[in-house]
Structures are given as structure tokens and as C-alpha cells.
Amino acid sequence: MTIFARFIHNSTPSYGILENGSIAALEGDLFQHRPTGVTHNLSDVRLLAPCSPRQVIAVGRNYKSHLQGPTKLPEPTRPEIFFKPVSSLQDPGGPIVVPPDSTDLHYEGELVLVIGKHLRHASKDEARDAIFGVTCGNDLSERNWQRGPDKDVQWWRAKGCDTFSPLGPVIVTGLDYDNLRLRTLLNGEVVQDQGTADLIFDCATVVSFISRYITLEPSDVIYTGTPGQTRPMKPGDVVEVDIESIGVLRNPVIAEK
Fold it and tell me: Is the pLDDT of residue 120 over 90?
């Protein structure tokens, strides 16, 4: 197991390997790098979203428990895929900014896959092998814009506003990502709690399906879906996505000024 972080120190973004509370800086990126010999205390750096993806892809309706809300949804027969803009990414600790006309913004804690290889028309085995590592994500969703009276044709703002895709705090390799406990906490209260073993479409299936239609490249990320039910957040709240063996993605919620 290796823990990769992306961080900023003295205005310079870098990748590093996290171990025992320190970050060993790397020259290069996640996939081609070498040690620089420089080590920073974790307290002396600011963590960034742990990779710079070319595209951000997400899966909807991927837990049965998420289909049992007020509006019962049918179980999908294939992974339901949508895009989130890269501009929606937010760093660990960075604020989730609520637009002034947002009225129903929900958290969605999710396991996120980080792709490590060029991938097209991949089998499940090839797809599994192409998953470099995993991290935590929060697929923020404005329900009124997604499916309410003010809904759009696409989810471009419901799930794509600036800061609506927190990611991090680190990328961990070597885990059994099909068997991790995922919890979301709102102001310290556990509001989602389920294992990734309960995904309707497991990680390799999702990656293989996407690769039939879209070429995946190293650093692309895939949000795999959220369990259970969600509820609105408001400025002043703090939301945390806590995934076993990865860590906690924590973000405060603020109003747009």
C-alpha cells in the first residue's frame, strides 16, 4: 500500500508519498516520478485534490439503498454515467460554495477511482488492472436543479458548479476497493454508512463499461456512486467523507459572497 498526496509548499504544487505524518516530495507525477530527497511535515503543506484529471466521470444510482428514497427509482440495467466538469473539483479542506439561488444542495459521499493506464474497450480484468488507486469524493448535488421544478436538461450546474466535486485527501494504492466501508458525516453526525461491496456495478465493471465508449487516460477519475439517502446542507455546516484505509475528506460549507 502506498499513499500519494498532491500538495503545495512555497507556492509550488508537487506530488509526494505520505508516511508517518511526513510527505516525501517527488519529481514528476503519480505514474513517472523519482524521490527528490526533500521531506515536509504534513503541517507545513496544504493538500490539494490528489490528482489533475483530464476528465471527471461519475456513476448514478449505484447502490440499492440510494434507490429507496421518496421517489422510488428502478434498479439500472447498466452503469448510469454522467460527467462533472474539471472546474468543479475542490481541495481537501477547501470550502463548498453555495450559489445564492441554490435551495436544496445535498452531500453524496463516494469512493473515487483513479485511472492509471490508457484504456479503451477494456475487459473487466484489464479494467481492474488499470485502476491505479482510490480516494474519497463528494458528488455535491443541487436537487432542485437536478430533478425539481427548476431542473435543467443536463446536470451541468446541479452537479457541476465550482467546488461541487471535493476530492481527496490522498490516493491509496493496493486496497481491495470493492470492500471498503464508506461513511459520510454532517456536523459530526453519521448520515451515510455502507460498504463498497454493495455497489450494484463493481469498480471493474464500471471502468470496463465506460471504456467501451470513452477513452480513459491516467489521472482520470470516476466517482462510483453514493449509498443511502441524503439531505440538504447549509452554510456553516461541515461535511466529511470517511473511507476505510483512505482517510477523511473534510470540507466546510459557505455561502457565495
Answer: yes
**pLDDT of 73 over the 90 cut:** no
Going by their DSSP bridges, the two strands 89-90 and 165-172 should be labelled as: parallel
What does the alpha-carbon distance between residue 199 and residue 204 come to, in Å, rounded to a whole number? 11
Q: Please classify residue 59 by burial: count the beta carbons closer than 10 Å to its beta carbon, then call 0-12 exposed, 13-18 middle and 19+ buried.
A: buried
How does pLDDT run across 181-237, given as a tens digit for each residue?
999 999 999 999 999 999 999 999 999 999 999 999 999 999 999 999 999 999 999
pLDDT at 72: 77
CA dist., res. 49 & res. 3, Å (int): 14
Mapped onto helix, strand or coil, the DSSP state of residue 145 is helix
Sign of CA dihedral 68, 79, 247, 234: negative
Q: How far apart are CA 82 and CA 93, in angstroms?
A: 25
Q: Are 207 and 119 in contact (CB under 8 A)?
A: yes
Give 115's contacts (C-beta < 8 A, 6+ positions apart).
Answer: 130, 131, 132, 207, 216, 217, 218, 219, 220, 221, 222
**Spatial separation of the C-alpha atoms in residues 103 and 171, rounded to whole Å:** 32
Banded pLDDT at 96 (limits 50, 70, 90): very high
- For residue 135, the SS3 value is strand
**Rounded Cα gap, residues 198 and 203, in angstroms:** 11
User: Residue 116 above 80 pLDDT?
Assistant: yes
Give the cell for residue 103: 435551495
Contact 133, 114 (CB under 8 A): yes
